Amino acid sequence: MIYLYHLISIFACLIVAPCFALFSLLSRNKWRRLKDHFGFVPLGDAPDKNQKTIWFHALSLGEVVGATPAIRLLRKNRPQDRIVVSVTTDSGFEAAKRKLPDIDVLIFHPLDCFPFTWNAIRKIQPDLFVLIDTGFWPGFIHLLHLKGVPALLFNGRISSRSMRRYRMFGAFFSPLFNWFTMLCMQNPHSRDGLESIGIDKSRLVVIGDPKFDTLPSHSKDKQDKVRQKLRIAPLSMVWVAGSTHEGEEETILDVHNRLREHYGNLILVLAPRRLERTLHIARTIMSKGISFVRRSDQWDKENTDFSVLLLDSMGELAEVYSICDLAFVGNSFITPGGGHNLIEPVAYGKPVLFGPHVENNQHNADALIESGLGIKVRNADEMETAVRRWLSEEAELARLEGKAKGFVLHHQGASRRMADIINDQLKD
Questions:
Q1: Which of 140, 303, 357, 374 is the most exposed place for a label (fewest CB within 10 A)?
Q2: 3-state helix/strand/coil string of the chain
Q3: Please, is 261 exposed, middle or buried when counting C-beta atoms within 10 Å of its C-beta (0-12, 13-18, 19+)?
Q4: Could you tell me the sign of the dihedral formed by the alpha carbons of 82, 83, 88, 94, in that order?
Q5: CA-based radius of gyration for the chain
């Protein structure tokens, strides 16, 4: 089946190449680095005989962030080796430039057409390939297998939805996973799922979630500065609805209106996942008669009279989590959903609410519920009850803050374990 895939890809590239070139006009980075996608990748300095070449592929921003600690450890421990990082998206490219300035080569991953991938592998000549998460190109992985290049999967995680697809097309996916030298999974559920479709047990290992190794922390002074920047009064209580999707904001706003009847100094920071939706959300807020301010308006206006802060800015959600009393994480209240990063608020010592659709983060959701740091809410009434419970128990919130820090420390270490595995693979 995989050879048929290659054959089709050879003919497909005649159509894909011009179409992709036109698409790349919409992206400054992709257009400038168009040749990368066709396998004509820059190599930097040629490796000498004592160097190993390690090729990491991180699909987008989230994968780059997750891989950063492990790559930094490798750079520190193996300064003589050449590190190549490939990405697929603009956001991934910019994140890699910012977070990984010491790598040797940064490229866009070639499209999965035989001529392009073969050319890239031939030019880079990796001694080891490391894929971050499970967003793989089957043709590319097969070519690595044919060339005898060991391939590792780092931070592998499989949702129940993906598992159903793998079982349905097991004849295609089982050989693909078995071409990896080792599959380093995020949790036991993902490991057991792959084992159930016939993946060699000896290739599977659970190393944990690298997200725990990337979590920030903010001092009390830093939190005070964030409050000042956002014009939030020191005595105001704050809850954050982060990375929300269409169909979630209206419920959250209704709950907030009801909560304000009991907590007059309660502020909601509403942070939609897609900023292009902020105008629509602003209209929804106005229709409900709720006083609000856009974050973008705070740059040049002094406004402290608001009940909702609409976070229509990039890169500020993490520090906003640091000043809240509790958080709700979106893409979990709707179908198909899947949920976003539940761990980020917990890093700041905050308990977290989420809806019933957290398939992409089920393991972490279960762990948070078990520890008392997370609550699953299925409707507006349950959300209101959970928020009121935590806001009414100041001592409980203080206790949970300490518990959250212990929870994060307990789950750290995936990046170091991955770096150790890579070191073992590269031993002569």
A1: 303
A2: CHHHHHHHHHHHHHHHHHHHHHHHCCCHHHHHCHHHHCCCCCCCCCCCCCCCEEEEEECCHHHHHHHHHHHHHHHHHCCCCEEEEEECCHHHHHHHHHHCCCCCEEEECCCCCHHHHHHHHHHHCCCEEEEECCCCCHHHHHHHHHHCCCEEEEEECCCHHHHHHHHHCHHHHHHHHHCCCEEEECCHHHHHHHHHCCCCHHHEEECCCHHHHCCCCCCHHHHHHHHHHCCCCCCCEEEEEEEECCCCHHHHHHHHHHHHCCCCCEEEEEEECCHHHHHHHHHHHHHCCCCEEEHHHHHCCCCCCCCEEECCCCCCHHHHHCCCCEEEECCCCCCCCCCCCCHHHHHCCCCEEECCCCHHHHHHHHHHHHHCCEEECCCHHHHHHHHHHHHCCHHHHHHHHHHHHHHHHHHCCHHHHHHHHHHHHHCC
A3: exposed
A4: negative
A5: 23
pTM: 0.87
Amino acid at 17: A
User: What is the CATH architecture assignment of 2-208+413-426?
Assistant: 3-Layer(aba) Sandwich (3.40)
From the CB of residue 392, how many other CB atoms can be counted at a distance below 10 Å? 11
Reported residue count of the chain is 428
CATH superfamily to which 220-411 belongs: Glycogen Phosphorylase B; (3.40.50.2000)
- Between strands 374-376 and 352-354, the pairing is parallel
Q: Which residues contact 162 (CB under 8 A, 6 or more apart)?
A: 134
pLDDT along the chain (428 residues), means of 10: 84 82 81 90 71 94 93 95 94 94 95 92 95 88 95 90 78 86 94 90 94 83 92 94 97 97 96 95 96 88 85 92 96 93 93 95 94 97 97 92 93 96 89
Give the pLDDT confidence score for residue 30 in this predicted structure.
Answer: 83
| Domain extents in the chain | 2-208+413-426, 220-411
